[in-house]
């Protein structure tokens, strides 16, 4: 059940983008752009472990970015709204124009890329 949100609230917007900020979650969202998939297929296509995919899918589902539907003995996952895919496409378009600045930005380096200076 979706509750109405104050879409002007910066904290709510930041939480939305947090769903896109993790490379694993982003890869899963990208994988789901082409349609519904089971966990097993997502694991095959991403190379992530089953437990990792399941944990991130739970996060994405809880945040409303993906939905799950039971189909026989399998659960199929898909993007919750076509606009999720559109946002990913828009990000690619924007990144094509600002990639150098994003790549060179030292303030947004993920913790996995930081060095121990």
SS content category:
mainly alpha
Helix content: 55-70%
Low-confidence stretches: none
Overall morphology: globular
- Beta content: 5-15%
CATH homology superfamily name:
Winged helix-like DNA-binding domain superfamily/Winged helix DNA-binding domain
Q: What is the tally of helical segments? A: 5
Query: Which strand order do you get reading across the main beta sheet?
Result: 1-3-2
Average pLDDT figure: 87
CATH fold node name: Arc Repressor Mutant, subunit A
| CATH architecture level-2 label | Orthogonal Bundle
CATH level-1 class: Mainly Alpha
Number of strands: 3
Oligomer: single chain
What is the ordering of alpha helices and beta strands? HHEHHEEH
Radius of gyration: 16 Å
Quick structural gist:
56% of the residues lie in helices and 12% in strands.
Describe this entry's structure for a reader:
The chain has 117 residues and is mainly α. It has one domain (15-104): Arc Repressor Mutant, subunit A (Orthogonal Bundle). It has helices spanning 10-21, 23-32, 39-46, 50-62, 82-104, and strands at residues 37-38, 66-71, 74-79. It starts with 9 loop residues before the first helix and ends in a 13-residue tail after the last helix. The mean pLDDT is 87.
Question: Any chance you could write out the topology, listing elements then pairs?
Answer:
Layout (H helix, E strand, L loop, with lengths): L9 H12 L1 H10 L4 E2 H8 L3 H13 L3 E6 L2 E6 L2 H23 L13
Antiparallel strand pairs: 1-3, 2-3
């Amino acid at each position: 059940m979706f509750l109405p949100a104050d879409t002007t609230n910066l904290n709510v917007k930041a939480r939305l983008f947090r769903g896109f900020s993790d490379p694993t979650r982003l890869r899963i969202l990208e994988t789901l752009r082409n349609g519904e998939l089971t966990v097993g297929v997502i694991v095959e296509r991403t190379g992530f472990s089953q437990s990792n995919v399941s944990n991130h899918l739970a996060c994405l589902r809880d945040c409303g970015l993906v939905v799950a539907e039971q189909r026989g003995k399998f659960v199929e996952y898909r993007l919750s709204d076509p606009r999720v895919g559109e946002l990913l496409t828009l990000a690619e378009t924007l990144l094509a124009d600002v990639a150098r600045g994003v790549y060179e930005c030292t303030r947004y380096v993920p913790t996995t890329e930081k060095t121990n200076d």
